[in-house]
Structures are given as structure tokens and as C-alpha cells.
Write a structure and sequence with these properties.
The protein is α/β, with parallel strands linked by helices. The chain has one domain (20-254): Glycoside hydrolase/deacetylase (TIM Barrel). It is built from 9 helices and 10 strands. Helix 7 links the parallel strand 8 (181-183) and strand 9. Helix 1 (2-13) crosses helix 9. Keywords: Signal.
């Protein structure tokens, strides 16, 4: 499947290699242990960041993208970096690379897991002092990702509201700042979930629907392109170009 996907990405790339709009990349764990599906090896992550730096991409924060969407001033060939869940290896492995390249990023933390260890993978989550250090760097924006990482569509409106509010309040308490961005756990959301996110005061929210951000996007339903251990370098390059949009359009036609 990966070989076929690579071939299709290469074929599409021959026609649409530039990036018109902004690609939001979604990472989780940056770790040598690739038994965790969402992990990307540190050396691979560094290579990916090097590619962005050497090929003239402008890496902007998710906050800047949200402001540009509101002001209808989107730029082409921009990339936004996001990390979900708040694994500690974002601090130990990703943060040094981001500092070297001076790339901003947003980390969405599950606030009920701060300082704990993941029961399934054994991976450690970020601690409060690490959150503060990264936020203080001016490169990293820490934002909420719910309190317990549930599927929001399975909750009542009040339960979903509490998950978002408690997570928002926890991040604001730890970092003494106002939060305005959100990531839906599992990319799972409904029209009601979106209304709850708006009620909580979020200005932008990200999904796991792949594609390129254009001026037509809804602020609280922004697409993101997943990068994990299965993502080949050919696919990575496609996900920071207009190829991913064409690929997703073809997938919709095949369904």
C-alpha cells in the first residue's frame, strides 16, 4: 500500500508540486520506539524540518494562521507544526530541533495526563515545568486538548463543554495566559461539538481531516496532515505541497 501511495504522490507531484495555501502538520510522539504507531524517529523528524528549512517554506504558528484566516491574508507555501497529546519526548527530542531551526509549534496537551505516564505505551507526558519552559521560549504555544481525551461525539453537550473548559482552565492556570486554540481528540467532532468549542471561546480548532488550508476553511474545522511512522519521505513532501489536496480529492472520488 505504501509503495502504491508513493507512486501516486510522485505522479501528482509532477503536476502540482507547489503549495498554494498552508499545510498544518500533525505529530504526536518523537521517539525511537516505533512500536507506538504515531511515533516519528528523532532523526527522521530532524530531516523533515531540514527539508522545510532548505526548500524555502515559511513555518508560522497556528495562532498566526488563525489571524491570517480572519484577516483574509493567507500566504502560500506556509507550514504549521502541531503536536497532539503532550508527550514528554516533544520536549526532549522535538524542542531542541525546533529551537535550532527557530520554527514555532503548537502542542495540544491532555491536561489530566500532565506529569503522568501513558498506560498503554508507557510514554511519559510533559511536566508543568517543561510546559512553562517551552512556552517561555516564544516558539512553543501550549494549548488544550481536553482533560481526558474522550471521543467528544459520544458525550452530551454538557460533558463535552466540561472537557474543553477544564482543559482550557488548566492550561491558563499553569501558564498564566489566555488560550484560544483547540484540537479535537481523534479528530472526532460534530456540529454540536464545534458550537461548544465556539462557546468556550476558541478562535480556531484543528481536525485530522487531511488537506490544505485555504481562505474557504471554517476556523473551527481546519484540516491537518498526519505524520507518523508510516509516512515516507515522498509522502511527507506531498503533505507540504498541493499534492495532498489532490490526493484527498481522488480518494473522495473512489469512495
Amino acid at each position: 500500500m505504501s509503495i502504491l501511495k508513493d507512486a501516486l504522490f510522485l505522479a501528482l507531484g509532477a503536476l502540482w508540486s507547489d503549495l498554494r495555501g498552508t499545510s498544518i502538520l500533525m505529530y504526536h510522539s518523537i521517539e525511537e520506539r516505533l512500536d507506538h504507531f504515531s511515533s516519528v524517529a528523532p532523526a527522521v523528524f530532524e530531516m523533515q524540518m531540514g527539508y522545510l528549512a532548505s526548500h524555502g517554506y515559511r513555518v508560522i504558528s497556528l495562532g498566526e494562521l488563525a489571524s491570517r484566516l480572519q484577516g483574509k491574508s493567507l500566504l502560500n507555501r506556509c507550514v504549521v507544526l502541531t503536536f497532539d497529546d503532550g508527550f514528554r519526548n516533544n520536549y526532549t527530542h522535538a524542542f531542541p530541533v525546533l529551537k535550532r531551526f527557530r520554527f514555532p509549534a503548537t502542542i495540544f496537551v491532555v491536561t489530566g495526563r500532565i506529569g503522568q505516564r501513558d498506560k498503554e505505551s508507557g510514554l511519559q507526558y510533559l511536566r508543568e515545568n517543561e510546559l512553562r519552559e517551552m512556552e517561555a521560549s516564544g516558539l512553543i504555544d501550549i494549548e488544550p486538548h481536553t482533560e481526558t481525551h474522550p471521543k467528544l461525539s459520544a458525550l452530551s453537550k454538557e460533558e463535552a463543554l466540561q472537557e474543553m473548559k477544564k482543559s482550557k482552565e488548566a492550561v491558563e492556570r499553569i501558564l498564566v495566559k489566555q488560550t484560544r486554540l483547540f484540537a479535537y481528540p481523534y479528530g472526532n467532532y460534530t456540529d454540536e461539538t464545534v458550537r461548544v468549542a465556539e462557546e468556550c471561546g476558541f478562535k480556531a480548532a484543528v481536525t485530522v481531516r487531511e488537506g490544505i488550508v485555504t481562505s474557504r476553511e471554517k476556523f473551527l474545522e481546519l484540516p491537518r496532515n498526519s505524520v507518523d511512522r508510516s509516512t515516507t519521505f515522498v509522502q511527507f513532501k506531498g503533505k507540504v505541497s498541493s499534492v495532498i489536496g489532490r490526493y484527498e480529492a481522488l480518494k473522495r472520488l473512489w469512495r
